[in-house]
Amino acid sequence: MASQSLPLFPLPLVLFPGAPLPLHIFEPRYRELLADCRAGDGRFGIILTSGGPERAIRPGRVGCVAELRDVRMLSDGRANVLVEGRERFAFEHYVDAPHAYHVASVGPYEDDTDEDPLTLTAAAERARGTFTRVANAARVIADEREPLPELPHAPELLAFRIASLVDFERDAQQALLESRSPLGRLIAVEALLSRAVEGIEERAATHGRARTNGHGPATTG
């Protein structure tokens, strides 16, 4: 995409392409943003803040376009909405606009595409496998029976989806969002998961033994 003006919602979180995100809208300025987006193309930008002034976002900061998927208005004017991450953008500068919310000029931010497909596929399978181990162990610890969330088949989206499901540190999430290398993202995500997998599997095994109380397999019903 060429540079364009985009309503901007700075938040202390990272939105990834292809990932859903629920939001609770309550500030008057973002109620206005929501109303304008619903009347327009349903898109605005989400960009990570570090706790400093919102107007201090530096040029080049990478965010993600959010597209409205569902809006549930509440009687007092607040709203619960579901958005989905679309393409990434690079923040350029704020623009003057007659709105209470921020509007920014943003430019395109795309992946490098010169990566070997077979190497990408192998890295994707490793990341997918390690994520499955971590997610299954977490389900045991939480006594959950819901199936694991579906993961995208496209290697360029896989790391983003995993990062949206795992509680990585914000700096690590932002680094993934800014990476132009699908292979690099997959390697980074697999490395982050690998650091946690043995510990969480040990906790899951301990939890399973505690549930049986030493008297055989736990029963389900």
Which keywords apply here?
single chain; 221 residues; Archaeosine Trna-guanine Transglycosylase, Chain: A, domain 4; 5 helices; 40% helix; disordered C terminus
Produce the secondary structure layout.
Blueprint: E1 4-11, E2 20-25, H1 28-39, E3 43-48, E4 62-73, E5 79-94, E6 102-108, H2 117-141, H3 155-165, H4 170-178, H5 182-212
Parallel strand pairs: 1-3
Antiparallel strand pairs: 1-6, 2-5, 3-4, 4-5, 5-6
Helix pairs in contact: 2-3, 2-5, 3-5
* Low-confidence spans: 216-221
Widest β-sheet, arrangement of strands: 1-3-4-5-6
CATH H-level superfamily of the largest domain: LON domain-like
The biggest sheet, with number of strands, parallel, antiparallel or mixed sense and barrel status, is: 5 strands, mixed, barrel
Q: Classify the helix fraction into a percent range.
A: 25-40%
The H/E string reads: EEHEEEEHHHH
Anisotropy-based shape? globular
Estimate what percentage of residues fall within beta strands. 15-25%
Task: Output the radius of gyration.
Answer: 20 Å
The average pLDDT value, as a whole number, equals 92
Task: Characterize the quaternary organization of these chains.
Answer: single chain
Q: Which CATH architecture of the largest domain?
A: Roll
Q: How many domain modules?
A: 2
CATH topology of the largest domain: Archaeosine Trna-guanine Transglycosylase, Chain: A, domain 4
Count of runs of 4 or more consecutive helical residues: 5
CATH class of the largest domain: Mainly Beta
How many β-strands, per DSSP?
Answer: 6
State the end-to-end CA separation. 53 Å
Q: Based on helices, strands and strand pairing, what is the structural class?
A: alpha+beta
